[in-house]
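A reminder before we start the practical. When you read a complex entry, don't treat the lines as separate problems. The point of joint prediction is that each chain is placed relative to the others, so the output describes one connected object in space. Small molecules and nucleic acid strands, if listed, are placed in the same frame. In the example below there are two entries. Take a minute to note the order of the lines before looking further.
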Amino acid sequence: DAGVTQSPTHLIKTRGQQVTLRCSPKSGHDTVSWYQQALGQGPQFIFQYYEEEERQRGNFPDRFSGHQFPNYSSELNVNALLLGDSALYLCASSLVGRSGRRTGELFFGEGSRLTVL
Amino acid sequence: QKEVEQNSGPLSVPEGAIASLNCTYSDRVSQSFFWYRQYSGKSPELIMSIYSNGDKEDGRFTAQLNKASQYVSLLIRDSQPSDSATYLCAVYTGGFKTIFGAGTRLFVKA
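Here is the predicted structure of the whole assembly.
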């Protein structure tokens, strides 16, 4: 059973550049959430995708955008990178249960560590 | 007021002792509560879920939930050095967002 996979695992960019991070959810999961985790902090919610639409967004600027594909995989794009965007970017997958309700339970990938110089 | 609050620690306990980790949350309509373990440089790993008031035990771990007090705790019995990690409390209030606390660092001394 394949877990959540993310790529790339590490990357270095310079200020002003753009980055795309990719995520494949756990087998059977239909929802992808993206989180940013700065050093020493808890994960901060960026947004969640379900049925190829952004369903909820955290307190992040429009420089952060995403997409979900028909196979449930997802991308996170960050434009005009700032030094403060350096962080671990976590993708988490989940699913709507048979009852049609969510539990909020998330399964994380190993993350993409972004360094902005 | 932060939505999910945890003592950042570090919490240091001797091997074999009970580690007690605490978390409070602000939204009374919160439905689901989770504890994640995160080793340094790694991603969070779900170790406990609790949905109703009371205690839930799984091996050496016990989660406790008190919705009236808006309080969640995690007890780790017979703590081992391999339990040394950051423990994240997470709360789901419905919709599409699970909110995390900043985490408590735990050190178990051999």
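Discuss with your neighbour: DSSP finds no helices and eleven strands in chain A. What might explain this?
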